[in-house]
Design brief:
With about 300 residues, this protein is of the alpha/beta class. Among the domains are: about 150 residues, Rossmann fold, CATH 3.40.50.300; about 60 residues. Helices cover about 35% and strands about 25% of the residues. The protein has 11 helices and 13 strands. A hairpin with a 2-residue loop joins strand 8 and strand 9. It is elongated. It is found in: Cell membrane. It comes from Gordonia amarae NBRC 15530.
């Protein structure tokens, strides 16, 4: 079925018991469709419901209501068929096995022993083959989990904080590998606290807060939801007074380090006015960034409790 979505979540809900016998709605009506081949970042503040949603997608948790389909089948069926695999934050590795033994054991379960060397090389584990898992750093253990997830050659890869604990070089190598996988058509859904990773890698961002989706769209569109661009310059008080007269709605955001940071409903008009101000210098225009959008769109979102 060519048009079957890679992921289809419909009105997912999941609640847990909270303090004082309250009920916390961890996931509160999430619906999401991801097409095959998409690379989607799943973002939100701590406690937003990301991990609970991913657990239901992977069949690790059963929703209270709603449906989950992975390529038209249940999560368990997709897992058993090798169509979905995951890199999770915690657990899953035996500390007394070596890295090579860990990869070989999982490879044997999928009939992929011939691919062990290739997978270990692609995930940067070749030099760690004889090291015990217990002696691997947190970032190295994440790379082991990534190797295990790619062994069945899944159509969908789910990543929950995949680069946690990795140093800069390891993170760069990880995303280089992921870009190659995505270029070959693999669907990727990943949650991360590193917003620059989402900005650089994702085609689409789904932003969740309070157990609900608050924004969903191409990365550039999500950035633009942050609102006004900020224009800054070194400018004296007299010129600032003139700017407030000629630029409708201009607002001084802050003054710091000799610079004045300004915003207006039309940032292009503001920038032109500064460029035409003889004594204004070092004019800079700060475009929208994902962090601004993240903070703007998740501000005030609360989880329902009863």
């Amino acid at each position: 079925m060519i048009n079957t979505p890679a992921i289809a979540l419909t009105e997912l809900r999941k609640s847990f018991r909270g303090p004082g016998n309250t009920t916390i709605n961890a996931v509160d009506g999430i619906s999401l469709t991801v097409a095959p081949g998409e690379v989607v970042a799943f973002l939100g503040p701590n406690g937003a419901g990301k991990t609970t949603t991913l657990d239901m997608l992977l069949g690790l948790t059963t929703p209270d209501s709603g449906t989950v389909h992975v390529y038209g089948t249940s999560p368990r069926e997709a897992t058993s068929n090798g169509r979905i695999a995951a890199v999770l934050q915690n657990g899953g590795l035996h500390p007394d096995f070596t890295v090579a033994e860990t990869v070989e054991i999982v490879a044997s379960l999928h009939g992929r022993l011939d691919d062990v060397g290739t997978v270990m090389y692609a995930t940067g584990l070749t030099d760690l083959a004889g090291r015990k898992v217990s002696r691997c750093s947190g970032g190295e253990q994440q790379r082991i989990k990534f190797a295990l997830a790619t062994l069945p050659d899944p159509d969908l890869l789910v990543l929950d904080e995949p680069t946690a604990g990795m140093d800069v070089d390891a993170r760069r190598a990880f995303w280089s590998t992921m870009r190659a996988d995505a270029a070959n058509g693999r669907t990727v859904l990943f949650a991360t606290h590193y917003l620059e990773e989402a900005d650089a890698f994702a085609d689409r961002i789904v932003l969740i807060a309070g157990g609900r989706i608050v924004a969903d769209g191409p990365t550039a569109d999500i950035r633009n939801m942050a609102g006004r661009r900020v224009v800054s310059a070194i400018v004296d008080d007299a010129d600032l007074t003139e700017l407030t007269r000629v630029v409708p709605g201009v607002e001084i955001i802050e003054r710091r380090g000799g610079r004045t940071y300004l915003a207006a409903p039309d940032s292009d008009v503001l920038a032109r006015a500064l460029f035409n101000t003889p004594r204004a210098r070092e004019v800079e225009i700060a475009g929208h960034n994902l962090e601004d959008a993240f903070l703007t769109l998740t501000a005030g979102a609360t989880r329902a409790e009863h």
